[in-house]
Write a structure and sequence with these properties.
This protein is an alpha/beta fold. The chain has twelve helices and 15 strands. The structure holds iron/sulfur cluster. It holds the Pfam family GcpE_C.
Length: 357
């Protein structure tokens, strides 16, 4: 099995996918790509949330033409999502896209594949092969009868071979399925078979609630095995939510270096403050902090500081007041009404310290 650190490094703009323990966060816009204003505005929101590579659909000539202006106004690598039409791929490449998601076996005649590969080679642009359980090639479906992990691997190898025959190796592969065990199995087979970096995703995973859980189950299992170099959480929600979920997931496996972690207690009969509201407010506040600090929010002082000894900063509720503590040691008492503000100030101070060092 190829651990993510053993995969081939592939450059996408100024980001390298593969060859290290880094897992790059991706998302995809939901705007019409030809609407440059709306697309750029959404990409800026994604960048702010922590998105490192963004994909746009290129389904029309206008969309391909919009790439140039979008690219000029954003700060992260841009990927063109192409289905079938090699002319749109060529136009997107011509307009400066950093990566193309296209399956070479679906482009058609050999000269068309060669044209796309030549254009990618000239500009140092990688290709992502996107295997999807829902759209396997007819010959594979006929062989297996229905989508299987082995069939998905065969599909990946079919497209990989086409590129390798043209001496093209800047390849990234995804093996998406909406069925979690199928996706896990397919990615495992891929990691056992080739060393191209893997783009993880559970496709059509569902809404913010259900999709987050399914993505965490599937992608979490793979990340724990050391599989995956880039991740896209697919949700029927604002794509900013995808990035937030991806960051949280990577944090769980210590695969992100600049994100804070919130520890909050489940509450019990000992609770002395409105902990759920406090935890939600601090969680939202932490979304914009770029420092690996651990913050603890606990409902009472009985076990509070002791339960969160590992936290850099935290609060524990008391009657009408709370304790502010650092590394398990109480530093001062704060009236309940001022608790959240005091904690935010301490978080800011720690983040500043981190940025200065
Ligand atoms: Fe209960 Fe206090 Fe523990 Fe929270 S910190 S679960 S309120 S004992």
């Amino acid at each position: 099995m190829y651990h993510r650190t053993q995969t081939r490094p592939v450059r996408v703009g100024n980001v390298v996918i593969g060859g290290s323990d880094r897992v790059v966060i991706q998302s995809m816009t939901s705007t019409k790509t030809a609407d440059v204003e709306a697309t750029v505005a959404q990409i800026h929101r994604l960048e702010e949330a922590g998105c490192e590579v963004v994909r746009v659909t290129v389904n029309t000539r206008e969309a391909a033409e919009a790439i140039r202006e979008i690219k000029r106004r954003i700060h992260i690598p841009l990927v063109a999502d192409i289905h079938f039409d090699y002319r749109l791929a060529l136009a997107a490449i011509e307009n400066g896209v950093d990566k193309v998601r296209i399956n070479p076996g679906n482009i058609g005649k050999r000269d068309r594949v060669e044209a796309v590969v030549r254009a990618c080679k000239e500009r140092g642009i990688p290709i992502r092969i996107g295997v999807n359980a829902g759209s396997l090639e007819q010959h594979i479906l006929e062989k297996y009868g229905y989508p299987t992990a082995q069939g998905m691997l065969e599909s990946a190898l079919y497209h990989i071979r086409i590129l390798e025959e043209l001496d093209f190796h800047d390849i990234i592969v995804s093996m998406k399925a909406s069925d979690v065990p199928l996706a896990i199995e397919a990615y495992k087979l891929a990691a056992e078979t080739f060393d191209y970096p893997l783009h993880l995703g559970i496709t059509e995973s569902g809404t913010l609630f259900g999709g987050t859980i399914r993505s965490a189950a599937g992608l979490g299992a793979l990340l724990a095995m050391g599989i995956g170099n880039t991740i896209r959480v697919s949700l029927s929600a604002d794509p900013v939510e995808e990035v937030k979920v991806a960051r949280e997931l990577l944090k769980s496996f210590h695969l992100i270096s600049n994100a804070p972690t919130l520890v909050s207690c489940p509450t019990c009969g000992r609770i002395d403050i409105d902990l759920i509201a406090v935890a939600n407010e601090i969680e939202a506040y932490l979304q914009h902090i770029r420092a690996p600090i651990k913050v603890s929010v606990l409902g009472c002082a009985v076990n509070g500081p002791g339960e969160a000894r590992e936290a850099d900063i935290g609060i524990a509720g008391g009657r009408g007041e709370g304790l502010l503590f650092r590394k398990g040691k109480v530093i001062r008492k704060v009236p309940e009404a001022e608790l959240v503000t005091a904690l935010k100030e301490e978080i800011d101070a720690l983040a500043r310290q981190y940025q200065e060092t």
